[in-house]
Amino acid sequence: MMKTRLKWVEAVSFLAESGSGHAVLMDGAPEGGGRNLGPRPMELVLMGTVGCSTYDVIHILKKGRADVRDCVVDVDADRAETDPKVFTRIHMHFTVTGRGLKPEQVERAIKLSAEKYCSASIMLAKTAEITHDFVIVEAD
């Protein structure tokens, strides 16, 4: 079971504390009554999703003994224009750096994450079209 606790700070600022004892401040934009002190809640959903997926990809590559050295993921997403403003499209572009990485290894890791392991992206795929692509950079 996971737990979290959220405390309203002021206006549209909230302090969330995870069950593992980590805290994050969420806030809104000034035009929405916030002071822009932290990410928006939906930004955290997107960041958590890409974190989940990237964790899987690196884990799968390392488990397959791939010499992966770095992974950066750039994400573009669209949300519905009306409430509830769910994600409707999410694209993840992986830049995977390593030595001798094979495209089929990276593609397989991304596919396994998307279809089997990443609970966050699998959940968001109920409302969003999620796509992925990747490039491989050879490490020095």
From TrEMBL:
<dbReference type="InterPro" id="IPR036102">
    <property type="entry name" value="OsmC/Ohrsf"/>
</dbReference>
<dbReference type="InterPro" id="IPR003718">
    <property type="entry name" value="OsmC/Ohr_fam"/>
</dbReference>
<dbReference type="InterPro" id="IPR015946">
    <property type="entry name" value="KH_dom-like_a/b"/>
</dbReference>
<dbReference type="Pfam" id="PF02566">
    <property type="entry name" value="OsmC"/>
</dbReference>
<protein>
    <submittedName>
        <fullName>Putative redox protein</fullName>
    </submittedName>
</protein>
